[in-house]
Amino acid sequence: MDGPTNVSDVTKDPHQGNDLATPGALLEENSIVPSFARSFPRNGALDDLVRAFASGNYRKVHDQAPELASRATDPAVRDAARVLLERLQPDPLAKIILLAAVMLLAVMATWWITEARSHGGAGPHVRGGVSESTKALVES
């Protein structure tokens, strides 16, 4: 039998024996710290912002992190607040990909418009008419 041999193996604490669960990785029960924030110093205001970040309350982090970074006396707390703010910024690669997609769409739309005009409009298949070559083929 390859599975666990007793019940204690199945009900084991998921954080026990896990290299990612370092001391201080849990701020409180049911509040897990993101991996980049595990080395942050312990500070009440900073812990509150880390909890907000982990729960998805980015507005709170965006509003309160600059204030914490400006008034904190500990340089490690200031740096941690700045790191939280940086994590809210969009990925530069995503910006480039979005810009490339918009440019590609503009080029394709321009090409489609110029091709339609060079062929006398939208063409018979769009207007509901029959092209001359189709008429000749049907008549023969």
UniProtKB/TrEMBL annotation:
Residue segments, region Disordered: 1-22, 120-140
Transmembrane segments: 96-114
Keywords tagged on the record: Membrane, Transmembrane, Transmembrane helix
Name of the protein this chain belongs to: DUF1707 domain-containing protein
Organism (species): Pendulispora rubella
